[in-house]
Amino acid sequence: MTKYRVQVDAEKCIGCAQCYVACANKVFAIINKKSVPKNPDACVGCRACIVKCPTNAITVMPRDIYAAYARFYGS
Ligand code: SF4
Ligand code: SF4
């Protein structure tokens, strides 16, 4: 089970590929000019992608925290 949940808000993503370049673990692919977290199992939670994204399109959350959050607020 992957440790982190990586999400890209496609509405916010402008396809600049900064996240693709920043991620040393090759989590992202750029598909149809949008970033897609194709390889979330490789995420180590370093947040480099979040820092680089100009539109705040990326969310990286530890799975256990996400699960608790989803239980509380709904997913
Ligand atoms: S948090 Fe780090 S390892 Fe995870 S997707 Fe972003 S840059 Fe890659
Ligand atoms: S850095 Fe942000 S805006 Fe640029 S491709 Fe990645 S998710 Fe999209």
Automatic annotation (TrEMBL):
Q: Which Pfam families match?
A: Fer4_21
Which molecular function GO terms apply here? 4 iron, 4 sulfur cluster binding; metal ion binding; oxidoreductase activity
Q: Which organism is it from?
A: Ignisphaera aggregans
Give the UniProt keywords, A-Z: 4Fe-4S, Electron transport, Iron, Iron-sulfur, Metal-binding, Repeat, Transport
Q: Which PROSITE patterns match?
A: 4FE4S_FER_1, 4FE4S_FER_2
Statement: the UniProt record of this protein carries the keyword Nucleotidyltransferase? no
- Which residues fall in a coiled-coil region? none
InterPro entries xrefs: 4Fe4S_Fe-S-bd, 4Fe4S_Fe_S_CS, Fe-S_Ferredoxin
4Fe-4S ferredoxin-type domain boundaries: 4-33, 34-63
Q: What protein name does the entry list?
A: 4Fe-4S dicluster domain-containing protein
